[in-house]
Amino acid sequence: MSTSASIRVTVWNEYIHERTKPEVTEIYPNGIHHTIAEAIRRLNPNCDVRTATLNEPEHGLSQDVLDATDVLLWWGHAGHDQVADDVVTRAWQRVLEGMGLIVLHSAHASKLFQRLMGTTCMLRWRDVGELERLWIVAPGHPILHGIEGDFVELPAAEMYGEHFDIPEPDQLLLISWFEGGEVFRSGCTFQRGQGRIFYFRPGHETFPIYHHPQVQQILVNAIEWAYTRSGNYRADGRHIPQSLNSIRK
């Protein structure tokens, strides 16, 4: 999938672990957000990419920034409760209006994703660095374009296991298997209002997962898939003073 129009992308990251944990700084010296942003720019020069972090004014997500964002990527883990509710509300509204949203790893517990899903979005986890295979169950989907083979393999990852408390996805693209035996719905699509949402599980901060070429390719594909040219979204109740039949008389 490709488009001639520039896609305006904002990569949002808490940027907490990279500044407080040396083992994370070593993997992502400029932050997870910059690693992802650089990969997007390299793989799709048609994307106009900016970054934003938790400690910026309005978390870097002012109304002007969100209005100028076609697709928002969200990575969160330790600071979900620090995200201001008014910022969550404006991002939620933009999704309904047609802004794409890519929810990364532990952002399953973000206020934004929980509000869009209407559930806790909770799961089981274990962080011992075990092998993960993300099995492709929807070959041919645009998000998986260019991914060769039957699965993507990550040599070390944090385990997420079912039950994953989300609504039934519109499409299930990837199912993870971990060497401990658990499975997990790791690539799921949803539609809310006019906005397309992709939840993509891999990305624990202590592993170099966002340096993985196939993970980067999936993210770039997901941006193109989530990009929509929004129509005239109507969420407000409107009083219609007379019927169409009355108008025609």
List the topology elements.
Blueprint: E1 7-13, H1 17-20, H2 22-27, H3 32-43, E2 47-53, H4 63-67, E3 71-75, H5 85-97, E4 100-104, H6 111-117, E5 124-136, E6 151-161, E7 171-178, E8 183-192, E9 195-200, H7 213-226, H8 244-248
Please give a structural write-up.
This protein is an alpha/beta fold and 249 residues long. The protein has a domain at 7-118 and 187-232: Class I glutamine amidotransferase (GATase) domain (Rossmann fold, 3-Layer(aba) Sandwich). The protein is built from eight helices and nine strands. The chain has helices at residues 17-20, 22-27, 32-43, 63-67, 85-97, 111-117, 213-226, 244-248, and strands at residues 7-13, 47-53, 71-75, 100-104, 124-136, 151-161, 171-178, 183-192, 195-200. Strands 2-1-3-4-9-8-7-5-6 form a nine-stranded mixed β-sheet. A hairpin with a 2-residue loop joins strand 8 and strand 9 (195-200). The chain is globular, with a radius of gyration of 19 Å. The relative contact order is 0.17.
